[in-house]
Amino acid sequence: MRHDMVQTEEPGGKPQDLSLPHGRITYDSAKDRETNILQEIRFAGEKQRFFDYLEHSQGLISATVARHLRVSTHACKIDERKYWIYGSFNVCINVWIDRGPDVLIRFPLPFQIKEDICPGNADEKVRCEVAMYVWLQENCPDVPIPFLYGFGVSKAQGFTHTNNLNIISRNVQSLRWKRSRAKQLPLLSDYTRTHDTGLCIPYILLEYVDSDRGEPVMQT
């Protein structure tokens, strides 16, 4: 590690612990590491700001989940921040639904995928993941994966699975499918644009899978 890094000191001249995305580290330990600690410190600050944004946007998140599931906003309870699950590229937040299926909303971490350098990376990441879920749901129904209820992109556009549309919207979508088949056009997916989310960040809304049914890949 570079020894010209900025140090903060406690009273008495002792360097304070340094904040990293996944915890803290002492200066003595950090200076002997070969990794770029300065970058990790910057990521820690960006993670803090992004999580603050999500925490302050809980009302929008609840409204977005409610719109996808066709439930009341008051029926959605966002998990406390200390229970959020995050890895290298995503943060996952459980949303508990009163008398409905519990779900998990997943956001890409913009600072990890260089969204500031290449705007659109987060949208592309979500689109690729959605394509994977849709392909598996349509072509490998025996493969156990969480159900994809919907997703959103950074232009505040939300897309919902046909099962969660009202009867009029389902009938309209059914007519579109029949028209595509009749004209031998590419078949439409089961996801339809339904609403503006109010969120300016992309996300995926998935079925919550408890430990009785399976384990997250990151924990296996």
What does this molecule look like?
With 220 residues, the protein is α+β, with helices and mostly antiparallel strands. It folds into two domains: 1-56, no CATH class; 58-219. The protein has five helices and ten strands, in the order E-E-H-H-H-E-E-E-E-H-E-E-H-E-E. It has helices at residues 27-30, 37-56, 58-69, 121-139, 167-182; strands spanning 18-20, 23-25, 76-78, 85-86, 90-97, 103-108, 148-153, 157-161, 191-196, 203-207. Strands 3, 4, 5, 6, 7, 8, 9 and 10 form an eight-stranded antiparallel sheet that branches. The protein has a two-stranded antiparallel ribbon with strand order 1-2. The longest helix has 20 residues, at 37-56.
Topology:
Elements: E1 18-20, E2 23-25, H1 27-30, H2 37-56, H3 58-69, E3 76-78, E4 85-86, E5 90-97, E6 103-108, H4 121-139, E7 148-153, E8 157-161, H5 167-182, E9 191-196, E10 203-207
Antiparallel strand pairs: 1-2, 3-5, 4-5, 5-6, 6-10, 7-8, 7-10, 8-9
N-to-C terminal Cα separation, in Å? 32 Å
Helix count?
A: 5
Major sheet description: 8 strands, antiparallel
| Oligomer class | single chain
Strand fraction equals: 15-25%
What low-confidence regions span 5 or more consecutive residues with pLDDT below 50?
1-9
Order of helices and strands: EEHHHEEEEHEEHEE
How does the overall form come out from the CA principal axes?
elongated
Q: Tell me the helix content.
A: 25-40%
> What gyration radius follows from the Cα positions, in whole Å?
21 Å
Mean pLDDT: 82
Quickly count the domains: 2
Q: What is the strand tally?
A: 10
Which secondary-structure class do the elements indicate?
Answer: alpha+beta
